[in-house]
Amino acid sequence: MDMASILYLGVTFGLFIIFVLIVRNTYRRRNKEEKEAPKYRMMNDD
Amino acid sequence: MGKPQYHTDIVKSFVNWSLVWGVVAVLVGVIVSFQMVNPDLNYPPYFTFGRLRPIHTNAGIYGWGVGTIFAMFLYMAQRLCKTPLWSLGLAKFQLWLFNITIAASAVTLLLGYSSTLEYHEMEWPIDIMIVVLWVTFSINIIMTIIKRKEEQMYISLWYMMAAIIGIAILFTVNALAVPVSAFKSYSIFAGTNSANVQWWFGHNAVAMALTAPPLAMFYYFLPKTTGVPIYSHRLSIISFWSLIFMYLWTGAHHLLWTPVPDWIQTLAMAFSIMLIAPSWGSVINGYLSMKGQWHQMRDNYLVKFLILGITFYGLQTLQGPMQAIRSFSAFIHYTDWVPGHIHMGTMGWVSLVSVAGIYFLLPRIYGREVYSIPLANLHFWLVVIGQLIWSTSMWIAGVLQAGMWNAMNADGSLTYTFTETMVEMYPYWWIRAIGGIIYLIGILVFIYNVYMTVQKGKEPAPKLLEVEGRA
Ligand code: HEM
């Protein structure tokens, strides 16, 4: 594997870590209400 | 606080023009399908399959697809942000530029000017027009989002942002070229790099133009139509980020068994299979949102369009990963199987959700009830049947074609010549053309219904009145 492919995989892995953090933040129990609120609020945007 | 005065006239104009380009796309599609069964229908130099095919694909993706994206995003952004559009003037300019760009694309393609890059055939002057068009649109939507009165962003806004940023990056990179004359340029990429960039663009165009925007519409119109919020906003957010994370690496699944480095192909294959999860995250979210509401499939024609649409998306995102596996790709690549896949996505998923959006909008932008629900139901059945005939005939044709190409005699020579395999395709190409005509009739019924709604539709219940100054 050359430098370019290591970089390519490195960026992929970096993004994966960010993704894991997003999942953790979204599914934290104490964030539940806040994260679900937009689906109710959009119902009366007309 | 008073209700914001949303701009609806501009949405109307985009709906109307996207319908015009949609009819052009389907009509040219039917013409090229007949050119395949009867080559005498080619009239060189202009009216040949080679020149009409890119007009069909570009009118479909950019005229109908992107035209609808413009209409829906301009409509949804205002409501989800609870604020009028940032600049009406910019949107009007965008409408003009959009139509000029699509018309210029059609004319230059007919004249034979082509960059030869699939789904990006227009030459460099038109590329510049497209960039200006997209920047104009992006600024307006992004500024509307920045100015929003809602702190948290609903999932549709996330998908809209992704489409806006994604298309800008993909298109610009793939358009990098050196002009050598007024209508000819050469890409700055060459060899396997060129192929890799082209399919990074190609597949992510599928993601950012044919997946993210219809998902934005689906998440908006399904709850609005059923009157019940989506099952889980958190699931939609996770599906969104995983989709964004995974799509970017999949382009090389179009290049399996080519000189593109093996590890890039393997990465594309692995990520394509992983893509099932975020895609089905949205499908399952859609189905679970229907809990206790399934009766609406019978009572509410809009729900039928939306649920069939997401079902085709679900099937498409199981079939796609299968096609991305090396052994399966070796069998179906280059065959008619692939157009079967494409058209389940475009005629099924994207178009069903887009027309549901348009039906939903009609009373709200024209202040009139949809003229005829029975006609809307007829439209539904014609397009679903037309599309199923279209796709199924091509899947069968593709398997037959692949089987014949792979057949070998005991001495290792090929059993069939290429011409023999072509001859076998004719019945399937006929069936496809008939499926296309049924679909076209469905679209004409839809246009008639829209026209009659505008002309003769009844005044809707006051709750639906949202036309400027009347609400
Ligand atoms: C999980 C999602 C998907 C995956 C992994 C996937 C995979 C693939 C693969 C591997 C091919 C290449 C087939 C070949 O030539 O051998 C392909 C072609 C194509 N797919 Fe999908 N697909 C997915 C979803 C979609 C969706 C939702 C659409 C929407 C319309 C779509 C539209 C297309 C188009 C337009 C092509 C043709 C490209 C060409 O001209 O060669 N796909 N897909």
Q: Can you tell me about this structure?
A:
- Chain A has 46 residues and is mainly alpha-helical.
- Chain A has one domain.
- In chain A, 76% of the residues lie in helices and 0% in strands.
- Chain B contains 16 helices and two strands.
- Helices cover 73% and strands 2% of the residues of chain B.
- Chain B is an all-alpha fold and 471 residues long.
- The two termini of chain B are 15 Å apart.
- Chain B has a domain of 188 residues: Cytochrome C Oxidase, Chain A (Up-down Bundle), CATH 1.20.210.
- The site of protoporphyrin IX containing FE has 28 residues of chain B, from helix 6, helix 12, helix 13 and helix 14.
Q: Approximately how much beta-strand content do the residues of chain B carry?
A: under 5%
Poorly predicted ranges of chain A: none
What's the CATH H-level superfamily name of the domain at 1-188 in chain B? Cytochrome c oxidase-like, subunit I domain
- Average the pLDDT over all residues of chain A and give the rounded result: 90
Helix content of chain B: over 70%
Side-by-side strand order of the widest sheet of chain B: 1-2
**Low-confidence stretches of chain B at least 5 residues in length (pLDDT < 50)?**
465-471
Small ligands present? protoporphyrin IX containing FE
β-strand amount of chain A: under 5%
Radius of gyration of chain A: 18 Å
The biggest sheet of chain B, with number of strands, parallel, antiparallel or mixed sense and barrel status, is: 2 strands, antiparallel
* Strands of chain B, count: 2
Query: What's the CATH topology name of the domain at 1-188 in chain B?
Result: Cytochrome C Oxidase, Chain A
Q: Which architecture name of the domain at 1-188 in chain B does CATH use?
A: Up-down Bundle
Alpha carbon gap, first and last residue of chain B: 15 Å
